[in-house]
Amino acid sequence: MKKVGRNDPCPCGSGLKYKKCCMLKDQQRESFRRLKEIYFKRYGIRLKDREDIEKIKEAGKLVVKTLELVEELIKPGIKTEEIDKFVYEFTIKNNAYPAPLNYNGFPKSVCVSVNEEVCHGIPGDRVLKEGDIVNVDVTTKLNGYYADASKTFCVGEVSEEAKRLVKIAKECLKKGIEQVAPGKTIGDIGWAIQRHAERNGCSVVREMVGHGVGFEFHEPPQVPHFGKKGHGIILVPGMVFTIEPMINLGGREIKILPDKWTVVTKDGSLSAQFEQTVAVTTRGCEILTPYEL
Ligand code: MF3
Ligand code: CO
Ligand code: CO
Q1: Cα 284 to averaged position of ligand 1 atoms, centre (Å)
Q2: pLDDT 10s digits, 262-292
């Protein structure tokens, strides 16, 4: 097959010269194809095209809707397993699947982490009480695509220090997202988050990181919430990943409870987390699980 010359008639049949018609689009498609190959070979990262991103966005809309409805449920006296029941039923009703359920043996449909629990809390008969802070982490699989987001809610009135922690954790996510654009690096994201947390006397959990998401629940790359400017993989259009900083009021050290899932702060201090799924685009960043930060 002969290559189409720039001055040849466009193969699409428009009658225009190739250079005035499909040439640029074809070149862009070809360079994205090469980039996909390189990122997969080098890092195991599967870049997403526009159609994939639209599908992840659809799953993301359902995640955000779920979080909105969960927020209405959160009151003193509610059991964490009632949140799980709601998430399971709402997700199934919307022809989707709650990704945590049976994931590596996780027994419930959503992670609910209270106070000193950092993440991966298992819903159960614990009753939320006034003054608690509670993270609800929802991951939904819709039409084969995953989106992942979480929020930390305050139960009734909470202490000033709890309020401050929740605010800083939310700002940390915002600062991380602000770094996302082609040409920036994974390290830039962690750097911005760590700086904001530590400037405010808080600490960043190291062991749990953000992650690629979309085709699977957890894909490469890892996205640490600490790091150095300019370090790590260069962000390119088509990368889709989560940013989900876990911020502690005390030390950054954690331990895992005997249930083998619940991660808690070692010193028992409060921990808060916010998570979004984001896509790197040619123009910058698109949030696929949008809620106000
Ligand atoms: N949703 C969590 C995350 O942000 C992962 C939970 S894994 C589970 O990556 F098994 F605990 F559900
Ligand atoms: Co999550
Ligand atoms: Co996640």
Answers
A1: 26
A2: 999 999 999 999 999 999 999 999 999 999 9
